[in-house]
Design goal:
This protein is mainly alpha-helical and about 120 residues long. It has one domain. α1 runs antiparallel to α3, α1 packs antiparallel against α5 and α4 packs antiparallel against α5. It is globular and about 45 Å long.
């Protein structure tokens, strides 16, 4: 009898990223009403970030190799750094920028961890 196995970290992370990317793309105003200041520029930026998350999730799900996961972690680390810079210079966006820093930083750590795990044929 086969025993069920847990989904690999990269898979769970990518599916969660798909949901977050969809929310940012489809309803950025709603996210901003809760966490930030819904200016036109902020809405546009969240849509762009949402599309990036969707693209990264799709690439990770299609090809979860250490190279793809490491590149994704680097993109997330850069994302976290720029969001932190935004929090430092724009008080109105500070709350959403700090939330975004935490989310992007978390994904960077998850993907980097998954890229370094030993695996049997697939990233793990």
């Amino acid at each position: 009898m086969d025993t069920p196995t847990a989904a690999p970290v990269w898979h769970t992370s990518a599916l969660t990223r798909l949901a977050w990317g969809a929310a940012l793309t489809v309803a950025p105003h709603r996210v901003l009403l809760r966490w930030g200041h819904p200016s036109g520029l902020a809405v546009a930026v969240l849509r762009v970030l949402g599309v990036r998350h969707l693209a990264q999730a799709a690439m990770t799900l299609r090809r979860p190799t250490p190279v793809v996961l490491t590149a994704g972690a680097a993109a997330d680390a850069l994302h976290a750094t720029t969001a932190l810079a935004l929090a430092a210079v724009d008080r109105r966006q500070r709350r959403i920028a700090l939330l975004d820093t935490a989310i992007a930083g978390g994904w960077a750590l998850l993907d980097l961890s998954a890229a370094r795990r030993p695996r049997n044929g697939r990233a793990g």
